[in-house]
Amino acid sequence: xxxxxxxxxxxxxxxxxxxxxxxxxxxxxxxxxxxxxxxxxxxxxxxxxxxxxxxxxxxxxxxxxxxxxxxxxxxxxxxxxxxxxxxxxxxxxxxxxxxxxxxxxxxxxxxxxxxxxxxxxxxxxxxxxxxxxxxxxxxxxxxxxxxxxxxxxxxxxxxxxxxxxxxxxxxxxxxxxxxxxxxxxxxxxxxxxxxxxxxxxxxxxxxxxxxxxxxxxxxxxxxxxxxxxxxx
Length: 232
What we know:
Blueprint: E1 2-10, E2 16-25, E3 30-34, H1 41-48, E4 56-61, E5 64-65, H2 74-79, E6 81-84, H3 96-106, H4 111-124, H5 140-152, E7 158-162, H6 170-185, E8 189-193, H7 197-203, E9 206-211, E10 214-220
Parallel strand pairs: 3-8, 3-9, 6-7, 7-8
Antiparallel strand pairs: 1-2, 1-4, 4-5, 9-10
């Protein structure tokens, strides 16, 4: 479960990015987070991953209190999260298998677990035949699926995808979002930050709209209240 209660976040330059947001995402939900440029979406992602701390309010993620978490607990909290970035962030000199194995070793996984888990995850994202390929040998859509596999490989409770379709054409974007829906149906909570209105409307999931650092709409079925603009 993700819970934000009266969260405020102001940067050192005086920008008030988040203004008293309260929001709950239950285990197993699929949620789109949308809003115009500068609305606060990126700051919310940074708050959820512990990259920045709120000025006030409380954040709970999968049983951890982010607001007063100890240094020792931060890696444990982050293991419950799988993050998917727009720019993939794959290690170019490592194969698909080694990109995934690197992430598993970082959290202390043993060799046997790595050998068992990686084929399963690659099959889930449809890349079992690309296990020995390097990122430069893959299409953009394939690289993004490797990024999804990397987010899944440590079996997180929650996937957070930050503009995951930003570098993909409409057909690949639809495939990618369908894959995230499939992952959600297997029990993983999924939060997707996006500006792609057509995708949001197509899937009929819960949509939380952020504007000027506040939640201005929380509904099911599509984006309500205007246009979604690119950027965060």
